[in-house]
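Propose amino acids for all 264 sites.
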């Protein structure tokens, strides 16, 4: 559904762009001189004006260059306004009639005897089926955990801070995978947390940087973030970061602020 909301938002932005230009050109149009430009066989340019049901034909001289440009501009703007108006009408109609396609919302509208249907794929491509995503087994980072830390629900993590993050996700009932394999073209990477955004039916990723004071560690992770971005995992969009140093450990407050940011 993230793509549907993205499309709706982009169309809203496009509507506002068109409306802004339409208003701007409409004001400019009002202050331009009236008249139609015509030429004769000698390529002389005339200005036709209609006033009181009478037409006047006035030849434009060399010193009428400014007037000539204004008349051209008026005609050009009049055509632009017509096209913009049609486009605005189409965009407004789409936004008015746009319906979010959500299979789960459709299921809730049906009587209880229809619940629990299996064996049918009714999700749009790219949208995550929560139940299916949770139930499917996945590969994890094969690198051994040297100092295990556990969450109240028994998840084993590599650090105390990652256990804190996982615990907050568990407490919020947020589906997630820890140290799960993600394929970037032909390469496997293992983000600390792969999280299901249930509302938008998309995956988001959270990396915890535990040694921000270590230069080599940070260079290695910056390269990792660049690689993510090359494959559509972009910082601030579907990739988020928590961090800490020896002098500034990760806090529950910082975790909650980051989770709120991720799901806003």
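Proposal:
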């Amino acid at each position: 559904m993230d793509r549907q909301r993205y499309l709706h938002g982009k169309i809203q932005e496009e509507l506002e762009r068109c409306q802004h230009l339409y208003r701007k050109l409409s004001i400019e149009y009002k202050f331009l001189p009236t008249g139609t430009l015509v030429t004769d066989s000698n390529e002389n340019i005339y200005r036709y004006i209609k006033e009181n049901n009478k037409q006047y034909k006035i030849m434009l001289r060399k010193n009428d260059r400014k007037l000539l440009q204004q008349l051209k501009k008026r005609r050009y703007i009049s055509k632009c306004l017509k096209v913009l108006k049609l486009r605005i009408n189409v965009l407004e109609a789409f936004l008015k009639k746009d319906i979010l396609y959500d299979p789960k919302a459709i299921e809730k509208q049906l009587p209880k005897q229809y619940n629990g249907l299996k064996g049918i794929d009714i999700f749009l491509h790219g949208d995550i089926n929560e139940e299916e995503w949770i139930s499917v087994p996945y590969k994890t980072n094969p690198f051994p955990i040297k100092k295990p830390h556990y969450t109240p629900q028994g998840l084993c993590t590599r650090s105390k801070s990652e256990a804190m993050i996982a615990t907050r996700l568990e407490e919020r009932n947020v589906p997630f995978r820890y140290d799960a394999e993600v394929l970037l073209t032909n390469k496997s990477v293992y983000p600390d947390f792969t999280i299901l955004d249930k509302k938008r039916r998309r995956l988001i990723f959270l990396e915890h940087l535990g040694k921000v004071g270590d230069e080599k560690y940070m260079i290695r992770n910056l390269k990792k973030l660049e690689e993510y971005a090359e494959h559509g995992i972009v910082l601030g969009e579907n990739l988020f970061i928590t961090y800490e140093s020896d002098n500034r450990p990760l806090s529950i407050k910082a975790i909650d602020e980051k989770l709120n940011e991720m799901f806003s």
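The first strand starts at residue 36 and ends at 39. Helices lie at 2-30, 65-97, 103-109, 130-135, 160-171, 215-230, 252-262.
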